[in-house]
Amino acid sequence: MEARTCLAIVLAAGEGTRMRSARPKVLHAIAGRSLLGHVLAAVAEAGVTATAIVIGPGQDAVAAEAKRVLPGATCFVQRERRGTAHAALAAKPVIARQPDDILVVYGDTPLIRAATLKRLRAPLAAGAAVAVLAFRPADPAGYGRLITAGDRLIAIREEADASLSERAIGLCNGGMMALAGKSALAILERIGDHNRKSEFYLTEAVEIARAMKLPAVAVEVEEDDVRGINTKKELAEAEAVAQQRLRQAALDAGVTLVAPDTVFLCADTKFGKDVVVEPYVVFGEKVSVEDGAVIHSFSHLTGAQVGKGASVGPFARLRPGTRLGEGSRIGNFVEVKEALLEAGAKANHLSYIGDAFVGADANIGAGTITCNYDGNAKHRTEIGKNAFIGSNSALVAPVEIGAGAYVGSGSVITENVPPGALALARGRQVVKEGWAARLRALKSLGKRKAHSRD
Ligand code: UD1
Ligand code: CA
Q1: Is the shortest distance between the CB of 12 and ligand 1 below 6 Å?
Q2: 151 pLDDT band (50/70/90 cuts)?
Q3: Do 320 and 338 meet the contact criterion of CB atoms below 8 Å apart?
Q4: Of residues 176, 22, 152, the one with CA closest to residue 88
Q5: With bands split at pLDDT 50, 70 and 90, how would you rate the model's confidence at 342?
Q6: Which of 54, 211, 220, 320 gives 20 to 30 Å between its CA and that of 393?
Q7: Mutate which of 34, 78, 84, 227 for ligand 1 pocket (most atoms within 8 A of beta carbon)
Q8: For the CA atoms of 11, 14, 18, 19, what is the dihedral angle to 10 degrees?
Q9: Residue 384: Cβ within 10 Å count
Q10: Where does the pLDDT of residue 39 fall: very low under 50, low under 70, confident under 90, or very high at 90 and above?
């Protein structure tokens, strides 16, 4: 059987005023990825063949984020906020193409999983016209209630329009819905705004389908899947759920997390086999850690590739563009940015390595700084394999240190150093015999004179 086509419509035209932020709600992030990014990732994984995103007027930043994560997505603008059905109809041109399945999902529901969306689609293949994600929250206040008869869904009643007995129903609308493509437009266009808020409610699709003698069903899921984000508190709660899921997935994949609750992961963090992550480590976007590497405590990594058997930290900071070769070592209080360290290279203490190449087995002494910025532009430092950079050296870029060269401690290197050479660039040591002893003697004489005066 041929795979069913599926259109996902992601509703993201809300203003999110309760976030108290200048940033559009769906651009806030959990686990290092925007709320919209999470939803689009789940949608993409659920076998969707086309994606439409409904945004509000002037929400160019939301459109840009949509394009960034899913270049094939199409944005539609909902000119006025007139309800969830009105929002879905903003994507009418693509609904009219009659895909087999249509998923309507919310952009502010980042914990939705692909498996859940697949479960929501499943009844359509079995002949349903409408399938609704249902859940039983501890407190149903504010949610639409599902009115059912046996396994059939009769209607969804918004709380504002519900009678007392309807409000007593515990089964609630998670908001997301699947519609059969062939009847979707006919149903959506019949939805009216005869309710308390005079909005076009997507939920009315259920009663309309019933009136058209088309079956509607509810698919019950866990509350986390449908958790919507409206406030910063809910954002933090969703972050906690996302982190638990990511930690569990890492543990399941064989990563050793010594204290899982203290490790913060990103939705795209990648681990090889036998990786150890010590307590209190933060992973930002785009980090991969290959087999056997160890990330020691209190390290912060973003945009970094950590090679096989490499050792990072404690207290290391890896910034975007860092690539660490096999068995390389980045020690405490070392910051690396936009730099490739080849196999076996070491920077064990207190260094900044930025815009640099460090050849295999080179040793970067404590306190070495690549001076990559002249206040105007960034410049590169190239350090050949087996080079030895003495402690507390400043390498003023652009500069090259040849393979096997040796830089004396405390040097300020402004010119290239040929392979195999020694470069010393520091003031000559001055020694004055007996100078300190004389100074001390003078001081104690002064003190005695002062005492004898009182
Ligand atoms: C909706 C459901 C309710 C369900 C709840 C679950 C309706 C009428 N009600 O209520 O049954 O229990 O979700 O969380 O569907 N949006 C637009 N344009 C609009 C209106 C909304 O894009 O004109 C988007 C919002 O940005 C949001 C989503 O649709 O992502 C849901 O809208 P919201 O106003 O939060 O719906 P609820 O009142 O929570
Ligand atoms: Ca809501």
Answers
A1: yes
A2: confident
A3: yes
A4: 176
A5: very high
A6: 320
A7: 84
A8: 70
A9: 20
A10: very high
